[in-house]
Design goal:
This protein is α/β, with parallel strands linked by helices. It contains 20 helices and 25 strands. One of its GO terms (molecular function) is FMN binding. It is found in: Cytoplasm.
Length: about 700
């Protein structure tokens, strides 16, 4: 229940990885400073709130997941409000403000928030505050911080107008009950026209909600020799200014060490997304040469003894641990090296000031320290400002304390972006950079997010090879930098590469890699179906596949599936298929050729029977002595075949699939398609962009991309 002495508003969050929840908790925390009470709930907890009868202002923080879908926690809510039988004034009484989180690297930026926002508007709800759309590509805080700053004035104004309306309605009711009924109807007073959307630009919307750290409190003078800022060092004016730092998040977790022994929880208990399957790795092949810039691996899993189902184009998730050396290093810094195998009990701290405090779902009540740090917490996560603020209190050195305050302050926003966010700094990097910082285990549990399972595209067809699942990935490398003194491999790809090293068939021996390994190595997976990135339902429809590098992965499954269909249904008509593939070097990392060599007995008929009718390959780093230089990138190859591409998309109702890197490929491919449509239709680019938008809307231009 909310306190009667404070004005209430309803605060809902819909989160996938914890970002939206963390921001909602920050809003809840700041509300008390402004004399307000936030009644906070996950949007999935529909038994704890009722928008149909809600009178107070509503604040919604919602993220976006997958290919523009609302997070899993919002699915039931979205389904409910999208009921087409709801009248257009269903939420006419509702005043709300919405903050959407997304990543502009992906096509449907903030679509989760936009979907809810649009539908609430269609059902008559009104904004009391402008919608904010925060972009994780450039830093959520660039929108989140000013949006929260402006929220308080908007809320107070909405609540004031609400009180005025209620007061006038009460007065009208009192007068009406004391007078004889008049022939004329007494019209209800409508004050909704007074509710103006309060813009973020309003001067008054910058009310202070943070603690001010005066320079007098910490007399820190920057060394004259250091003229450039770094992770551990600032320069004027930041080093000489008073700081606005966030309020200290309340502690709410207590860790009790236990002497008793036992067993750690099963990994499946950490996953809320669905059923997990522990499956053996039966094949591992390196698809690139040793001197290639990236190392690409193919793994095959045995799913025959499970009920795991998939279609070509689907993805699945691998449950992976943190790097063992990093876990040991963290235990050492925390002074817990000797206690890694000790069991601990995680509970909510008695008397905590955190509203609705509960043990995070991804944290088992009882496990070993090492299990917590290995399987539960994302120790590579980029620390949020609230975490930095909490670390200030664990830091003894005055200069280090001041620098951490700068990095979490409003004045230090650009330094935070440059030295922490853009540098991919993690907790270990911070603890090395600020050696006097000694956080408790409970603080890590409070602030480190859940260790997320990693998603991969399926590179096989269950119809073609029942009981097997293949996938391809690059081993991700993070080079050392100024803020991170050591290089690292990706959490999951580095672990998988190390796991399969004993059974790995090198590039040179690929042709002899038919046999399956007797390895007993197993990994835990769970399905993540893709609702749209599938073959056309009508096999006669032509389609184009664009998949440079490991982006070719789902298209191998497409072609295997199509080939099996051709064998099973000789009387069917099948449309033409185009594959545009690209990589750096013909001899070092020609992944498609390696697929053909590795599975040549399975795929030899790709061309013979017309499963693949057109293959266009380009190599971006190879030099050419040809008079006319060959295309370097897939978008160049598409332009060379503009007439065929336009024919398939415009005249034959074909599909267009893109898989691979978003930043360096997918956008360029999209631009190329606009150019092709514009040229072949003899229309301007705006018209071509509209056609492309219609193709996307019709689910005929589909992307499976990553940043």
């Amino acid at each position: 229940m909310c306190c009667d002495s404070k004005k209430r508003f309803l605060l809902l969050y819909a989160t996938q990885k914890g970002q939206a929840k963390a921001i909602a908790e920050e809003i809840w925390q700041q509300a008390g400073v402004h004399g307000l009470e936030a009644d906070m709930h996950c949007i999935s907890e529909m038994d704890k709130y009722n928008l149909e009868t809600e009178k107070d202002p509503v604040v919604i923080v919602i993220s976006t997941t997958g290919t523009g879908e609302p997070p899993d926690t919002a699915r039931k809510f979205v389904k409910k409000i999208q009921d087409k039988t709801l009248p257009p004034d269903h939420f006419a009484h509702l005043q709300y403000g919405l903050l959407g989180l997304g990543d502009s690297e992906y096509m449907f930026f903030c679509n989760g928030g936009r979907t809810v926002d649009r539908r609430l508007q269609e059902l008559g709800a009104q904004h009391f505050y402008d919608t904010g759309l925060a972009d994780d590509c450039v830093g959520l805080e660039l929108v989140v911080d000013p949006w929260i700053d402006g929220l308080w004035l908007a809320l107070k104004e909405a609540l004031r107008l609400q009180e005025e309306k209620e007061g006038m309605n009460n007065a009208v009711n009192a007068v009406s009950s004391s007078l004889s009924p008049a022939p004329d109807t007494v019209h209800e007073l409508n004050l909704s026209s007074k509710v103006q959307n309060l813009k973020l630009e309003d001067e008054g919307a910058r009310g202070s909600d943070v603690l001010s750290q005066k320079l007098d409190d910490i007399n820190l003078v920057a060394p004259a020799s250091d003229t450039e800022p770094s992770l551990v060092h600032s320069v004027p004016p930041l080093s000489q200014t008073a700081l606005n730092i966030p309020a200290l998040p309340p502690e709410y977790i207590e860790v009790q060490h236990q002497d008793t022994q036992g067993e750690n929880p099963h990994l499946s208990s950490l996953i809320s997304e669905g059923t997990t399957f522990e499956v053996p790795v039966t094949k591992a092949v390196q698809l690139t040469r040793g001197d290639a810039i990236k190392t690409a691996l193919l793994l095959e899993l045995d799913i025959a003894d499970t009920v795991f189902e998939y279609q070509p184009g689907d993805a699945f998730c691998v449950i992976c641990p943190n790097n063992a050396n990093e876990v040991e290093e963290l235990l050492h810094i925390l002074g817990l090296s000797e206690k890694g195998d000790d069991f601990v009990c995680v509970k909510v701290k008695q008397g905590t000031k955190k509203k609705g405090a509960s043990r995070p779902q991804h944290i088992p009540e009882r496990s070993t320290l090492k299990f917590l740090l290995t399987w539960c917490l994302e120790i590579r996560a980029i620390p949020k400002k609230a975490f930095l603020r909490a670390l200030v209190e664990c830091t003894g050195d005055v200069a280090e304390k001041r620098r951490l305050q700068e990095l979490c302050s409003r004045q230090g926003a650009s330094d935070y972006t440059r030295f922490i966010r853009d540098s991919n700094v993690c907790l270990l990097d911070l603890l090395h950079a600020f050696p006097s910082c000694k956080p408790s285990l409970s603080l890590l549990i409070e602030h480190l997010p859940k260790l997320q399972a990693r998603s991969y595209s399926v590179s096989s067809s269950n119809l073609y090879q029942p009981g097997r699942l293949r996938f391809v990935f690059n081993v991700v490398e993070f080079p050392a930098g100024a803020s991170r003194p050591v290089s690292r491999k990706g959490v999951c790809t580095g672990w998988l590469a190390e796991l399969v090293a004993p059974l790995l068939h090198p590039y040179e021996n690929t042709l002899n890699a038919k046999g399956e390994s007797t390895s007993t190595e197993k990994i835990s997976i769970f399905p993540r179906p893709n609702n749209t990135f599938h073959l056309p339902a009508d096999p006669s429809v032509p389609f184009i596949m664009v998949g440079p590098g490991t982006g070719i992965s789902p298209f191998i499954g497409f072609l295997q599936h199509r080939q099996k269909l051709r064998e099973q249904h000789t009387d069917w008509e099948f449309g033409e298929t185009w594959l545009f593939f690209g990589c750096r070097h013909h001899d070092r990392d020609y992944l498609f050729r390696q697929f053909l060599l590795l599975f040549r007995d399975e795929l030899r008929n790709f061309f013979k029977n017309g499963t693949l009718t057109h293959l266009k390959v380009c190599f971006s780093r190879d030099s050419s002595a040809a008079e006319v230089a060959p295309p370097k990138y897939v978008q160049d190859a598409l332009r060379l075949h503009a007439k065929e591409v336009a024919r398939i998309l415009l005249k034959e109702g074909g599909y267009f699939y893109v898989c691979g890197d978003k930043k360096h490929m997918a956008d360029d491919v999209s631009d190329a398609i606009v150019d092709i449509l514009s040229m072949e239709m003899e229309a301007d680019k705006l018209e071509a962009m509209k056609i492309l938008a219609l193709l996307r809307e019709a689910k005929r231009y589909l992307q499976d991309v990553w940043s």
